[in-house]
């Protein structure tokens, strides 16, 4: 919802009429790093350093959700090469993971202030 507000503030959605924007909001869940407080999160976070445990199941579920959104657009006649995904923080991490695991060729991925989750599962 916060990114939609930014796009609306700068009239991006209105001036780019040939572009369809989809702004999914992460589900509400407890985030361990924030003392279990419930908030929007694509997956649980346990720590900020590279050695912190990762919520593999949550990351894979969120990545699948994004890939399902991509597939919906392809099913609606949009070539995957015209689909770009992106996100900020956990959303960026989800977008990166989805982009690297999708079977589709994408136009690109925009990942801001983020990291690659499950990085050890990818080739160097």
Poorly predicted runs: none
The average pLDDT score comes to 92
What name is given to the CATH topology?
Rossmann fold
Total helices: the number is 4
Question: What do these coordinates show?
Answer:
- The protein is of the alpha+beta class.
- The protein has one domain: Alpha/Beta hydrolase fold, catalytic domain (Rossmann fold, 3-Layer(aba) Sandwich), CATH 3.40.50.
- It contains four helices and four strands.
- The chain has helices at 2-9, 12-15, 56-75, 90-101, and strands at 28-31, 37-40, 84-88, 108-112.
- Strand 3, helix 4 (90-101) and strand 4 form a beta-alpha-beta unit.
- Helix 3 packs across helix 4.
- It starts with a helix and ends in a 12-residue tail after the last strand.
- The mean pLDDT is 92.
- InterPro entries: AB_hydrolase_fold (IPR029058), LYPA1-2/EST-like (IPR050565), PLipase/COase/thioEstase (IPR003140).
- Its EC number is 3.1.2.22.
- It is an enzyme of class 3 (hydrolase).
- GO terms for molecular function: carboxylic ester hydrolase activity; palmitoyl-(protein) hydrolase activity.
What's this, in brief?
The protein is an alpha+beta fold and 124 residues long. The protein has helices at residues 2-9, 12-15, 56-75, 90-101, and strands at residues 28-31, 37-40, 84-88, 108-112.
Layout of SSEs?
Blueprint: H1 2-9, H2 12-15, E1 28-31, E2 37-40, H3 56-75, E3 84-88, H4 90-101, E4 108-112
Parallel strand pairs: 3-4
Antiparallel strand pairs: 1-2
Helix pairs in contact: 3-4
InterPro entries: AB_hydrolase_fold (IPR029058), LYPA1-2/EST-like (IPR050565), PLipase/COase/thioEstase (IPR003140)
Protein name: palmitoyl-protein hydrolase
Enzyme class: hydrolase
């Amino acid at each position: 919802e916060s990114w939609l507000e930014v796009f609306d503030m700068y009239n991006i959605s209105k001036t780019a009429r040939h572009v369809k924007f989809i702004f999914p909001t992460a589900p509400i869940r407890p985030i361990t790093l924030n003392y279990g407080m419930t908030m929007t999160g694509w997956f649980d976070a346990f720590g900020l350093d590279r050695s912190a445990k990762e919520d593999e199941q949550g990351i894979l579920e969120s990545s699948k959700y994004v890939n399902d959104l991509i597939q919906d657009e392809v099913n609606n006649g949009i070539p995957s090469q015209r689909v770009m995904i992106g996100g900020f923080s956990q959303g960026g991490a989800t977008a990166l993971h989805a982009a690297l695991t999708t079977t589709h060729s994408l136009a690109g991925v925009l990942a801001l202030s983020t990291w690659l989750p499950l990085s050890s599962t990818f080739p160097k």
